[in-house]
Amino acid sequence: MATFLYRLGRAAFRRRWLVTLLWLMVLGGVGLGAAKAPAAGDDGTSFMPGIEAQKAFDLIGERFPGSDANGANARIVFIASGGEKVTAKENRAAIDELVSTVAEGAQVDSTVDPFKTHAVNKDASIAYTTVNYKVKADDLTDASKESLERALGQARDAGLTVEVGGTALASQPAAGGSAEAIGIALAAVVLLITFGSLAAAGLPLLTAVIGVGVSMCAILTLGSALGLSMTTGTLASMLGLAVGIDYALFVVSRYREERANGRDPQEAAGLAAGTAGSAVVFAGLTVIIALAGLSVVGVPMLTKMGLCAAGAVAVGVLVALTLVPALLGMWPNAVLSRKVRKPGKRDGSAGRRSGTAASGGTRWARFVMRRPVAVLLLGVAGLGALALPAAQLEMGMPGDEAKPASATERRAYDALADGFGAGFNGPLTIIADVKGSSDPQAAAAKMAEQIKDTEGVVSVTPPQFNEAGDAALFSAVPSTGPSEEATKDIVQTIRAERSDLEAETGATFEVTGSTAMNIDVAQALKDALVPYLAVIVLLSLLLLLVVFRSVLVPVKAALGFLLSVLASLGTVVAVFQWGWGAELLGVEQTGPIMSLMPIFLVGIVFGLAMDYEVFLVARMREAYVHGERPGQAVVSGFRHSARVVVAAAVIMMAVFSGFIGSGESMIKTIGFGLAVAVLFDAFVVRLALVPAVLALVGDKAWWLPRWLDRALPRVDVEGAALTSRTQESAATGAEAHPREPARTG
């Protein structure tokens, strides 16, 4: 592996213009494909096959073919001000005018008159109407939206307070834009401080942006054929940028180190690709394993997001191994520090002095190794305490109630809850399958009656039959809000009564609707969390076993990851579910954690944790293989890698922290969770607990049974073959390869 990557790095350096041109052609090709490709449509797959709410949703589509539950809708809430009533003559006229105006829209399917459908609360202070559209929210034209907004403005001018919920005018949550710009700016500052060179700081940013550009354009090009979209690519964009910067950072850092040790530019590029590049390959593989493992969860959308992100990581690895050495060939001296670029300083003396000097990483490693027990106990106890709230994790899908009070969707939600009860915003939809009943009408009526008598159910609408008469639809309004635990209990109680009703009537029913869907999805994802963890941990343990040829190091890496991810989940629960310090992050409404968030957190953080493990411990392994004692090897690993690992972690935190400022609770939660997870894993687990454990176990850290040593393939991540090549060349006084003439930066 190391020898192959060494040759690849030298070849990319030597044929730098060709390699750069090929990458630009790839970027241009996929960019043109993205511009010409048709927009991605709905692939028709369900969100999570197998759960009851999804099966009921599909049954509704089958038995009631005229209904389109996926169509856009707008729930317009009218609030009378100053103690007036919405039934007053002027207010009623304004509402009637709005309903009739909106109904004329070309894409409108139906509207309802709130005064004819009893959509007015008891004291007549609040009324609502629902506008259903023939198309999905993404397909609404600007003309349709503008028509609705004009009608809303006219009602407000008449003196009513008007708020709008639903999907028609809702802004779609998306990561990117200013958040990514903030992350890139912070990463640039960190790189500039780390390298002390504008070129060295700019090169990882440039290559990462090119890699993300290739990945995102490829996603758009294939979007129509594979059912991908920009939302599907959100994770790919976020991770592609983060790992792209990090992987280029490690290669450039090793190149600078080799140049400081007296290597000529081409040889330094080859050695950087053969050593740091080997670590990049295996670190990238761990991330890809974690992301591809999202397919075991059983959510098609999540599978697509994971595979797209895995593809973006693979592109980032290829860029680091080929484009980075090629650009180093164009500016071989520009990426060096100013001190090394001075005449007479590239003879290796400066590098040797700096290599033996006590850096911050060296001093920290020695401090930990003098007090390994104290550091280990303090780190484990601290992360363990932070992990305790994770035991109280409640998963759900926050809706309009989680939006800031400045959003009209949130105000509409609150007004409906005040006027009609907390459960009005999350009614349960029941579809009765009466095909096997001798008296379908009586069976549906019996079901509705029994569900109405269920504790916690406020009201039930009369059953509405389809044309074939073999299915009926009705709604049940719970007394509690959609995200409350009591609502989950109500759904479970209703479903528990099903067997008795089926035996009595010969018919059955299923519960769906947004509330039931969120409950079922949350439970399914919670059940999938442990199998997902087991799959990625097992596969990555095998990979790290090959990389480090050690039993203890992979096990320690996995246990450290579990500790850091539980601590980050506990912190997320404490802030976003319990509300500790929530106001500091601008969180106005606490509640259940978004169902997909823990899965995202586990997958992404596992990959990044293994990144830091590979980059840090690979240098320790390299020093140990080359003859250093265990303690010396730990110090050597920190001397060479600690600063770069710290910079990489800070860059990751900067990229993820940029999303905390989002107005969307979902994106804010993901950004915060990933940022604190990187903080815990990089600075506590990898930089504190890892050296403490290695100091305690000594040589045993690198123990591997002989039979397993013979069975495992040898990949030479530490570059032993490259060291032998260099030593042989030095002994004969000849170069392994002809030197490349030095170019000025």
What is the topology?
Layout: H1 2-14, H2 16-36, H3 52-63, E1 73-79, H4 89-103, E2 108-111, E3 126-133, H5 142-157, E4 161-166, H6 178-195, H7 198-226, H8 234-260, H9 265-292, H10 300-330, H11 338-341, H12 349-356, H13 360-370, H14 372-387, E5 395-396, H15 408-420, E6 428-433, H16 440-452, E7 457-460, E8 464-465, E9 471-478, H17 485-496, H18 498-505, E10 508-512, H19 514-548, H20 552-577, E11 593-594, H21 596-625, H22 630-657, H23 665-697, H24 706-711, H25 720-732
Parallel strand pairs: 5-11
Antiparallel strand pairs: 1-3, 1-4, 2-3, 6-9, 6-10, 7-9, 8-9
Helix pairs in contact: 1-9, 1-10, 2-7, 2-10, 4-5, 6-7, 6-8, 6-22, 7-8, 7-10, 8-9, 8-10, 8-12, 8-22, 9-10, 9-19, 9-21, 13-22, 14-20, 14-23, 19-20, 19-21, 20-21, 20-23, 21-22, 21-23, 22-23
Structural summary, described in words:
By secondary structure, this protein is an alpha+beta fold. Helices cover 63% and strands 7% of the residues. The chain has 25 helices and eleven strands. The chain has helices at residues 2-14, 16-36, 52-63, 89-103, 142-157, 178-195, 198-226, 234-260, 265-292, 300-330, 338-341, 349-356, 360-370, 372-387, 408-420, 440-452, 485-496, 498-505, 514-548, 552-577, 596-625, 630-657, 665-697, 706-711, 720-732; strands at 73-79, 108-111, 126-133, 161-166, 395-396, 428-433, 457-460, 464-465, 471-478, 508-512, 593-594. The strands form three sheets. Strands 6, 7, 8, 9 and 10 form a five-stranded antiparallel sheet that branches. Strands 2-3-1-4 form a four-stranded antiparallel sheet, with helices on both faces. A two-stranded parallel sheet has the order 5-11. Helix 1 packs across helix 9 (265-292). It is elongated. The two termini are 31 Å apart.
